[in-house]
Amino acid sequence: MRIAIPKETHPGENRIPITPAHAKKLCAMGADLVVEAGMGAGSGFTDAEYAEVGATISHDRGELFRSADLLLRLRKPQLEEISQMKRGAIHISYLDPFNEHALVNAFKDAGVTAISMEMIPRTTRSQKMDALSSQANLAGYVMVIQAATYLPRIFPMMMTPAGTLKPANVFVIGAGVAGLQAIATAKRLGGKVTAFDTRPVVAEQVRSVGAKFLEIDLGETGETAGGYAKELTPEQVEKQRQAQKDVIAKSDVVITTAQVFGRKPPVLITRDMIEGMAPGSVIVDMAAETGGNVEGSVPNEVVVISGVTVIGKGNLAGEVARDASQMYSNVRRQRDLRYLPGGRPQPGGHGQG
Ligand code: NAD
User: Fold this and answer.
1) 286 and 144 housed in the same domain
2) Do 197 and 75 share a structural domain?
3) CATH number at residue 20
4) DSSP 298-342
């Protein structure tokens, strides 16, 4: 089986789909692994490292697409790349299939099977293949580090002969995978952390990582069978905004990660709430690229609104590309092995737990 790994071409993308250590395992299973020259450079891996473990290095990108039985990637492909692929080939990457109808149709027309890494069930049984969680964990860490970089204060309490500094107040809205990691990171840095999530089951998880859970009675909220949050009514969103207003005003850092699967994220911080924060405070809006939890946040930019720094950077996991690649390579290896002759098929499963 010929497995091809083309170089990522999205501007600023330094993550890669497979590390030399995992390439070695595929080669050892008998795969004919072809890597585009320079593929690993963004994450600090050289062509020589891939050649050493048995991969072939190719300078002909078109040939990679034409000859591959299995293509392993991180980002979704270009339309014109799909038309080059062999009928019957398999393409594995993030795909954003709910929005990328043209890509899905192109795969269908080309007779190529496309596997979307986002669609792996978010269950315990398949968590070793959960690419979204692997990257969201890192994004949670990166958001806190970015906030710390822009905040003109330190996170921990510090008692010195020159005076005592109070710990920074951090408020995390949305405590899924990224939010919980943001809470844990902010705690490790010494911040005083409060968090809120609409899924009631999250309160205990928030407390278990040492943060305070903000109690807001929004009435019926709950979660879907897949474990995702249900969309709030406009009245519930307004109630949540009002209930969070005071905490936001007293926070040095606010991190928003609130998402509703398949829907636009709710706007939870309005301009007047930003104006209520002290100048120099920092907001990190993880949802900026998909519509934003914060009014005025700009995707992939850092803007200042009424003296408050609002960070809307995307591809947060890409800021720690080497570790992000290591994790993505690891989760995707679990999946790819199933497609190799001699691979170990795992029982599927869509149920929680
Ligand atoms: P996500 O990115 O879809 O959303 C992030 C968080 O925002 C969620 O916790 C959600 O409840 C919250 N949210 C939505 N609207 C909100 C609002 N108005 N205010 C505050 N918070 C709001 O979620 P995710 O981090 O990708 O996780 C999705 C689900 O998958 C979670 O239930 C998670 O526990 C589950 N999961 C399970 C496993 C497993 O192994 N069992 C692994 C990974 C994820």
Assistant:
1) yes
2) no
3) 3.40.50.720
4) -TT-EEEETTEEEE----SGGGGHHHHHHHHHHHHHHHHGGGSTT
pLDDT(332) > 70 = no
Burial 295-311 (b: 16+ CB within 10 A, else e): bbbbeeeeeebeebbbb
Counted domains in the chain: 2
Segment 279-304 mean pLDDT: 96
> DSSP 3-state assignment of 197?
coil
CA–CA distance, 168 with 144 (Å, rounded to integer): 12
Tell me whether strands 163-165 and 158-160 are parallel, antiparallel or unpaired.
Answer: antiparallel
Catalytic residue at 134? no
Atom of ligand 1 nearest to the CA of 202: 9
State whether residue 236 is helix, strand or coil.
Answer: helix
What separation in Å is there between the alpha carbon of 174 and the centre of ligand 1? 7
Answer yes or no: is pLDDT of 345 > 60: no
Query: d(Cα 79, Cα 57) in Å, to the nearest integer?
Result: 24
Mean per-residue pLDDT for 48-73?
Answer: 97
Q: Can you give the pTM of this predicted structure? A: 0.90
**Residue found by looking up tokens 């040492």 in the block:** 210
| Tokens matching residue 267 | 């706007």
Residue 110 Cα to ligand 1 midpoint, Å, equals 35
Q: Find the domain containing 169 and state its range.
A: 136-313
- Answer yes or no: 259 catalytic: no
**CB neighbours of 281 closer than 8 A, spacing ≥ 6?**
151, 251, 252, 253, 254, 307, 308, 309
Q: Say if 344 falls within a structural domain.
A: no
Q: pLDDT value at position 347?
A: 41
Q: Which of 220, 223, 257, 284 should be mutated for ligand 1, with most atoms under 8 A from CB?
A: 257
Tens digit of each residue's pLDDT (9 = 90 or more) over 179-226: 999 999 999 999 999 999 999 889 999 999 999 999 998 888 877 877
